[in-house]
Amino acid sequence: MRGRLGSETHVVHWLYVAIVWATISFASLVWWPGCQTAGAAKKLSKVQRLACLGITGAIRTTSTGAMEALVGLPPLDLVIQGEARSAAHSLWSLGCWSYLHLQRGHSCILTGLQKSDPIFNMRVDVMKPVFNLEPKYGVTMLTRVECSTGPGTPAVKVLVWLTDGFGGDRGWGLWAICKQKAQYLSR
User: Degrees (nearest 5) of the Cα angle 87, 11, 68?
Assistant: First the structure.
């Protein structure tokens, strides 16, 4: 192995795992059957080999498997298959999976996963998110005249904040004042 600076190898390893793996495995559920061919596996192995050479600084005759073991990277085709399995199981758990052909195409990854271990046939504790975007507060904008001549503090128990750009005993600037708590916020 050639001499390398320690921090460089960690950076190359991090960049490869964080960016290249994420880019290659994006939407792997859709295209993972294509990486089962020998040609695709060879191309993925070339990408992984370049990364391993950059991380380890090894000479080019070093085997890819040895560098992967040294760096702790699993073969890229297995990473893609794992990502596809995880995505398929997540979709199935949420009830968003439909089987077209059990033993062909994209569905066979989930059927194979469920046959390998019965635990994958169990539903998981997942809740679909529900968003309530209605505000739990109300805002009433009064002019300076309405504030001084209006009914004053509302009958409901609320906090009344007054904002103004004024000069007073606290100086000039933008102020927010809460009547009930005697709090001042300035900017």
Answer: 60
